[in-house]
Amino acid sequence: MIGVIMAGGRGSRMGLDGEKLLLKYKKPIILHVVDSLRRSGCFSKVLAVTSPNSPGTKQLLEQNNVETVDSSGDGYVRDLNEVLQKFDEDVFVTPGDLPLLDSSIVQKICCLYDPQNIWTSILVSKRLLEGLGRTPDLTVACDNQECTYSGISMVNSEKINSLDTVEERTVIIDDKRIALNLNTKEDYRLLGAT
Fold this sequence. Notes:
The chain is α/β, with parallel strands linked by helices and 194 residues long. The chain is 29% helix and 27% strand. It has helices spanning 29-40, 55-63, 76-84, 103-110, 126-131, 176-179, 185-192, and strands at 2-6, 24-25, 27-28, 45-50, 67-70, 90-95, 119-125, 140-142, 145-156, 168-172. The strands form two sheets. Strands 1, 4, 5, 6, 7, 8, 9 and 10 form an eight-stranded mixed β-sheet that branches. A two-stranded antiparallel sheet has the order 2-3. The chain is globular.
């Protein structure tokens, strides 16, 4: 399995002058995610998807010996689709803005992977997010609960032609390590309180 970190977004919702993945939580946020995937021992390689929107992030990643793959930067879904077309093996996808991610939760998620499922999305419950002081932008119903996407997915990329027609399996894992991603300045403030 390959570990893929999505690191090409603008981070426009945060209203920052710089790139959000370079914000620090002891070290730059993106490096927490890289280290978590590397330390998990689950991946044959770890790489990051960057774009013209994230030149500083790309530079930092390359300085830390992380392979990068360029995308157009036209949005998360389009960038992910571009990248998945380049692989013919199992892929673990995570956003680069999960500063609490660690190797043990990555291992736990990887143990749930079944290549018979083309796409497995990891969800967290709305209840957990609200307990962390966050309000989800979008919720979906899963197992009689309101949930939101963590941004983590496991994909059998051999079976994907396009993201337009993919059958999705969903799994709820209520764990703050995958629930706190940085989309707003308030999220970053909450991170400092953890």
